[in-house]
Amino acid sequence: MSADSGVPTYRGIGGLYEVESTEDGLPIEAILSGTMIRTNPLLTWKYLAAIAAAAEGATINRGHSVIAEMERHFPRVWTLTQNVDGFHRAAGSQNVIEIHGNMRSLSCMGCTYRRNLDETAGLQIPPRCPACDDILRPDVVLFEEALPEDSLRSLQRQLETGFSVVFSIGTSGLFPYIQEPIAAARRRGVPTIEINPDETIISSMVDYQLQLGAADALQQIWQRYSLAN
């Protein structure tokens, strides 16, 4: 979804996940892990800051706005996202399940202190808690960490209720919980659509595939729906 905003897709060509090891000699999965931020927070934050810097200045795109408009128009629209940029909420969507958390807030690893983060420019690396001087970490799910239980419960409730149509937009679908909404829709005989310029694991599961970017496809869909209604 956020590729059209200029946010790099880190599983894409030339991204961090395309190399066996980083310049520090470790896989990115090891560096961005729960273990590493506890034992070597400086190293983890070095890469978190690089990721944040690559997206600095990016903002919502038309695709985010269309989804927010759909939510206001239809009785029930929910968005499950792996993105941690917070753009869906910034665009006005309320029913958002941020399954991997949100990079726009920090929490102390030693106490209950929490703060919002508008930008990483000028942030001390690693940032420290003004209350107890422990390390602050972004409210995201790192490797080796469990998904947030409240998000999983919300996802399960929505899947049990079901939907009239399910879209998969711009995701490689590598995680089973990202594939599950499509799989659940297929079991119910509900139409499924993938929007993605590339073939993915999900491509063979859906009824329709639009090989377009998210913003372009969603704008066209919304425009045609609006003209027809």
TrEMBL record:
Domain Deacetylase sirtuin-type: 1-229
InterPro entries: DHS-like_NAD/FAD-binding_dom, NAD-dep_sirtuin_deacylases, Sirtuin, Sirtuin_cat_small_dom_sf, Ssirtuin_cat_dom
Signal sequence annotation: none
Binding site residues for Zn(2+): C108, C111, C129, C132
A Pfam entry, by short name: SIR2
EC numbers on record: 2.3.1.286
SUPFAM superfamilies referenced in this protein's UniProt entry, alphabetically: DHS-like NAD/FAD-binding domain (SSF52467)
Organism superkingdom: Bacteria
Active site, renumbered: H100 (proton acceptor)
GO molecular function: histone deacetylase activity, NAD-dependent; hydrolase activity; metal ion binding; NAD+ binding
Keywords assigned by UniProt, alphabetized: Hydrolase, Metal-binding, NAD, Transferase, Zinc
PANTHER family in alphabetical order: NAD-DEPENDENT PROTEIN DEACYLASE, NAD-DEPENDENT PROTEIN DEACYLASE SIRTUIN-5, MITOCHONDRIAL-RELATED
Record protein name field: protein acetyllysine N-acetyltransferase
Provenance organism: Symmachiella dynata
Lineage: Bacteria, Pseudomonadati, Planctomycetota, Planctomycetia, Planctomycetales
Gene: cobB_2
